[in-house]
Structure formats: structure tokens, C-alpha cells
Amino acid sequence: MDDELTEEEKRIKEYGSRYRIVELLLQLLSGETFNIDEAMEHYGVKKKAIQLDLKYMRFLLDRYMPDRKIVYDPKEQVYRVENKGVVTSAEALMVLKMIIGTRTFSKDELEDVEEGILDLVSYKERSSVKTLLATTLGKYYPVKTEDNLIERIDKFANWILKHKTIEFTYNSSRKDSDPDKTFIGVPINLYFDTSFYYVMVYLLEDEDDKSNPRVFRIDRFDFPIMEKRKSYNIPFNKKVDEGEELKKTYLLRMGNDVHYKFQYWNYPQTALDKLPGSRIVETKDDGSVIIKGEIFSEGALLWIFSQGDGLKVLEPESLVREVKERLKKAVELYDN
Question: Which domain holds residue 173?
Fold first, then answer.
């Protein structure tokens, strides 16, 4: 007779209530539901047996997962697990809307991130978050980047933690760059800025030691990357204070590190928000303000030109000359 049973029926017969409890509990924890009558028929037991199973499952959840509980839905006539949630629906919505707004991840990766965050929200509130995200996700268009960004971030995070040396090639946006050039260096830290993730790498062979460590965009590395066997300890004088570096970085960590002084006619908080570490040192009679700070010159130029006639560079003189030269070239494009 046993030969006529299915594999599942054999397991139910052999393990009895142990198999039943484990299967039902895993079913509930995965977000599914069950009906007592259907469970009785499936396992071939009486109602009292399922009720005892429920009692024991509730005991297990109370002991090991106190944020979850088994409840009965009288409308659907099923049992389900509800959880209090690690984060509130508002917190999940806040984080997901922010991630969507960066347009950083491919649609598939974004869906994986969404699923992971929604798992932290209570079952009861999960559907409302999905509803509020539906329109935004339906019209989501990511920036052009690699589809394996999460995998890349994970690899770089491990290399940073283990102080690993890597050998790589890189697709730079600079016209004079050599795409076949091989770099050897040690990743130091990761950061995010304006739709892209960046990694600081201390290069072991760098012609311009003043610019070392350098910043690379994670999606522009050629993969796979070769990991060297030995770890490397970066010289103390080359270790980077990430917080200080980010205060000086606006889009690009290129050019010289300059102490700037601007006269600004637009809304002052706009400058203070975009240029961390900047400060207002004087307010003029015409409503403009004098702002000082520290930034890398290429990032400074991007910011300056984005402000149109609402900004004038006062210091340093080298930055004033560079702005004049680039504005002159821009005007020539329209004169020709």
C-alpha cells in the first residue's frame, strides 16, 4: 500500500505532526495562509490535531519571533502571520522613494531592493506602500549603468574590509584616457553622489602622488577584476577622512583642492546645501552673500556654471581665470 503513496504522503505518514507543524509554519512565515478544513483534508487528520498544531506554532513564535503572531481572518476564513514590522510604512516609503529618485539601479535590481525593504514592513501595511509606489515604479527610467551594480558594490565592500589589492582597467569619461591601461590599487571607501556610486582607490603606482588616492565610478570598471593574494596597508599620510573629502566634492573629485570665495545672488541655502562645509561670511546691501569653502576645482566649475548670472567668483585668482577662459570659449561657440 505504501508504494501507492506520493512522496509527500509518505513524509506526512513517517514524520506525522512534526512534518505538519514545520510545513504549516514555513507556509505562514512565507506570507501564505491556510484554512483548517483544507489542512485537515491534506494531512488526513482531525480538527483537534490542527488546533494543537496552531497552539504549538503560536508558542514557537512567541518564544523565537515575538514580533510575529498567528491571527485568524474571519472574512477569508484563513490563518495568517502578522508582524509588527522592523520599520514603519512611512520609513519604508521614505527610503524607497529616495532610492527611486536617484535612478541609480536597473529596474530588476530596484525590484529586489524594494522586496528586501518591504520584508521589514508589517504585512498589514505592505500593500499600502506598494500602492503608493506603483505609479513611480511604472515610469521608472534608470540612468545608463551596469545591471550588476549591487554585486559590484558587494565586491568592493569586501575588498575594502579586507584591504585587498586589485588589478583593473577602467572606462574613463576623459577623452585622453587609455582604456587598456592597467591599474593596481587598494580600494579605501565607497560613497554615493548624484545617481552614481564611487570608490576611492589608493594606487600603488601613481605618477601624480598628490592626487592619490583617486576616485573611480563603480559602474565604469571592467569586470571581472583580478584580486591579488596579499593585503596592503595604506601609508598613514594617505589615509582619507571620507567625511572631509565629501565636503569638498561636488560631482567631481578632479583638479586642485581650492579655497573659494563666491559672491552669490541666488537663494543662499541652495549653495550651502550643494556645497557641504561652505559658510556665509558676509551679507551685502544688495541682498547677495559672500560664501567661503573648500572644493575640488572641476566640481567648483560645474557648480559655478550651473548658477548662471547669480554667482561671481572672487577667489582664488586661478579659479577666476579658469572661469573667464571657459566662458570665453562658450561664447565663441555661438559666434561661429
Answer: 149-240
